[in-house]
Amino acid sequence: MNLRAYRNEIRWTIVVLVLAVLGVVALWPRDAEQQPTATNAPAPPPAAKPVDPQQRAAAALEPCPTGEGGPAQLAGITGSCQADGKPVDVGSAVAGEPTLINVWATWCGPCRTELPALQAYAEQPGAIRVLGVQVQSDPADGLDLLTELRVHFPNVHDGDNRIRAALKAPTVLPISYVVTGTGEVRRIDPPVAFETPDEVRAAVERTLGRQ
């Protein structure tokens, strides 16, 4: 083999090797580089803001009621009392006498209208006990809203959605229930937001069968 042919063979060998390397790089799976990002777990939701004791003092909520017995569907279902942050058994809290349970959230516009109407009703002679259940919203924000609206009837924060699930509450808020003296849970229908204490009283009396 003469020198020129030998050099040509070397050149073609180098060209083939370069092309082979380029082919391997082009075909290398990109997923391997992206895999760490793609398999990362989604960021957890932000933790609830800590409740300042001064917020509880400013809200001046009534203590959460306690009792014995109560409706079976709420037995053992606990929430956090907004008055002091302690656990409260909702079944026991509504035992012993008729109770109006109102489910609300801070992001719910109609709830802002209804909560003061419920407070005005709770202050009337002959009103049944009222218990608020805050869902799907931060307890600290709930205390601020109750303070702003001057609502003082007892409230429970439903942090794990267990109370709402036990009540089989729909996604639309607000929604209210009446627990009878015998422990039967009755939803107030139609589920409209109350604007006045008289509307609350009429719905309660109707649901209890007094009208």
Mean pLDDT: 85
- Count the beta strands: 7
Q: Radius of gyration, rounded?
A: 32 Å
Tell me the number of helical segments per DSSP (H or I, 4 or more residues long).
8
Can you give the helix content as a percent range?
40-55%
Summarize the main sheet: 7 strands, mixed
Order of SSEs, N→C?
Answer: HHHEEHEHEHEHEEH
Strand % is 15-25%
Physical arrangement of strands within the biggest beta sheet: 2-1-5-4-3-6-7
Helix/strand class: alpha/beta
Ends distance = 115 Å
Q: Which geometry do the CA atoms define?
A: elongated
Low-confidence stretches: 29-45
Molecular structure report:
The chain is α/β, with parallel strands linked by helices and 211 residues long. It has helices spanning 3-27, 31-38, 53-59, 90-93, 109-122, 139-149, 162-167, 197-207, and strands at residues 78-81, 87-89, 99-104, 129-135, 155-158, 175-179, 185-187. It has a 7-stranded mixed sheet. Keywords: Cytochrome c-type biogenesis, Disulfide bond, Membrane, Redox-active center, Signal-anchor, Transmembrane, Transmembrane helix. Residues 37-209 form the Thioredoxin domain. It is found in: Cell envelope.
